[in-house]
């Protein structure tokens, strides 16, 4: 079942152009004129009015599924105008945090069986909120117990490390934002750009997968390290968290995703000539802020690896002294889908080089069905 691949994680990383195509199949409508471009999510169409009128949208999940929701949050806020908040399922339960009848709660889970997410769903149902599921598993507990939802249709994911489900979850939540957001004249150009971007996304993912050898070389360079930091912000704060989760989960290397805006509030003290730091600085509205973060890390002699938009290397690394990973440019809200792929590849190659089990990392289970 692994075909030409040695590991399921490797196979699942490389099949993302196809899994994303399946996720979008039949859901993107492209008529003749630009006005006719839209999104159809069969499972949500009868509930869109309620979602639009809700007081809050609350994303709830664990691990990678939480990170996917975090990546989609800014675009959903932009298009819906509804406040979007984030909850890690276990933390919501620990706090018994407030959930109201006027809330739309969105449960994100690849397996649809994660105990914490399922218990948070029961809690939200008891509190009278509208409960929406986003899951990869038809017939799973979350799919059955939510009022409505969307299957991500990424295909079966076997590697314990979630890869193709993450990118498909982001795409589904981006489509959710397009479906919920009002089709106003002011948002028309933006909507069309994102829908066109979705159509072209599998091609861009195919392009970024060509960096495989480059990431293998980077893994060789980092194989002996004890720690790896990842700095991101805006749309790519989630990329930093998810990249670091992959590295710690499979390569068993300490890694931390850090919000770049928090750098001076503590993490900067860690920076020296030895600790490797990946900075995500692809082109979007946060770019100039990330340029200044790079300058400040550079001034402290940080060992930088910068992920930037193709052609931007001279802008992010004027002295030529840092290593650069150049990725294709896509619409800002879709950039996390492209940007995570080099980090998935890096985590994969680090794991192989360090001799650890890729598909079954120690102490972990694919689906965490106990609290
Ligand atoms: C559905 C069919 C698909 C068919 C398509 C044709 C299923 C599972 N899907 O896809 O095979 O090709 O119509 O139009 O039969 N749901 C939840 N919670 C969740 C996920 C989904 O309640 O977490 C519900 C949805 O609200 C919906 C149903 O499950 O009622 C199916 O969802 P989904 O597969 O996303 O719907 P379609 O894409 O329309
Ligand atoms: O099945 P779920 O999406 O609910 O699982 C949530 C987490 O357990 C899961 O994403 C975990 O963090 C992954 N192993 C990360 O790769």
TrEMBL record:
Pathway: Nucleotide-sugar biosynthesis; UDP-N-acetyl-alpha-D-glucosamine biosynthesis; alpha-D-glucosamine 6-phosphate from D-fructose 6-phosphate: step 1/1
GO process terms (BP): fructose 6-phosphate metabolic process; protein N-linked glycosylation; UDP-N-acetylglucosamine metabolic process
Keyword Protein biosynthesis: no
Signal peptide: none
Top EC class for this record: transferase
Highest taxon above the source species: Eukaryota
Reaction it catalyzes: D-fructose 6-phosphate + L-glutamine = D-glucosamine 6-phosphate + L-glutamate
GO MF, any single term: carbohydrate derivative binding
E.C. numbers: 2.6.1.16
Keyword hit for Transit peptide: no
Annotated protein name in UniProt: glutamine--fructose-6-phosphate transaminase (isomerizing)
Organism: Aristolochia fimbriata (White veined hardy Dutchman's pipe vine)
Source species taxonomy: Eukaryota, Viridiplantae, Streptophyta, Embryophyta, Tracheophyta
């Amino acid at each position: 079942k692994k075909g030409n691949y040695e590991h399921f994680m490797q196979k699942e990383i490389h099949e993302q152009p196809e899994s994303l195509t399946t996720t979008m199949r039949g859901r993107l409508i492209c008529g003749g004129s630009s006005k006719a471009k839209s999104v159809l999510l069969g499972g949500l169409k009868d509930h869109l009015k309620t979602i639009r009128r809700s007081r809050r949208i609350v994303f709830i999940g664990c691990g990678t599924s939480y990170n996917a929701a975090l990546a989609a949050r800014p675009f959903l806020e932009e298009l819906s105008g509804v406040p979007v908040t984030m909850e890690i399922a276990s933390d919501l339960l620990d706090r018994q945090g407030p959930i109201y009848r006027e809330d739309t709660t969105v449960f994100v889970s690849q397996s649809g069986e994660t105990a914490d997410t399922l218990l948070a769903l029961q809690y939200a149902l008891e509190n009278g909120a509208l409960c929406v599921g986003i899951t990869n598993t038809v017939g799973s507990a979350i799919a059955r117990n939510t009022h409505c939802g969307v299957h991500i249709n990424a295909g079966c994911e076997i590697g314990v490390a979630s890869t193709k489900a993450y990118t498909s979850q982001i795409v589904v939540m981006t489509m959710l934002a397009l479906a919920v957001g009002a089709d106003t004249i002011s948002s028309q150009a933006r909507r069309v750009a994102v829908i066109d971007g979705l159509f072209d996304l599998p091609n861009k993912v195919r392009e970024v997968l060509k960096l495989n050898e480059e990431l293998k070389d980077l893994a060789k360079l980092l194989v002996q390290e004890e720690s790896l930091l990842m700095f991101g912000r805006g749309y790519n704060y989630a990329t930093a968290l998810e990249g670091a989760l992959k590295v710690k989960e499979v390569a068993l290397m300490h890694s931390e995703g850090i919000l770049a805006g928090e750098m001076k509030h503590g993490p900067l003290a860690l920076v020296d000539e030895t600790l490797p730091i990946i900075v995500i600085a692809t082109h979007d509205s946060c770019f100039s802020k990330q340029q200044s973060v790079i300058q400040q890390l550079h001034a402290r002699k940080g060992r930088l690896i910068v992920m930037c938009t193709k052609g931007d290397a001279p802008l992010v690394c004027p002295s030529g002294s840092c290593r650069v990973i150049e990725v294709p440019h896509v619409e800002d809200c879709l950039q996390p889908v492209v940007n995570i792929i080099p980090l998935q590849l890096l985590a994969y190659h680090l794991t192989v080089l360090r001799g650890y089990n890729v598909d079954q990392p120690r102490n972990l289970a694919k689906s965490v069905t106990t609290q």
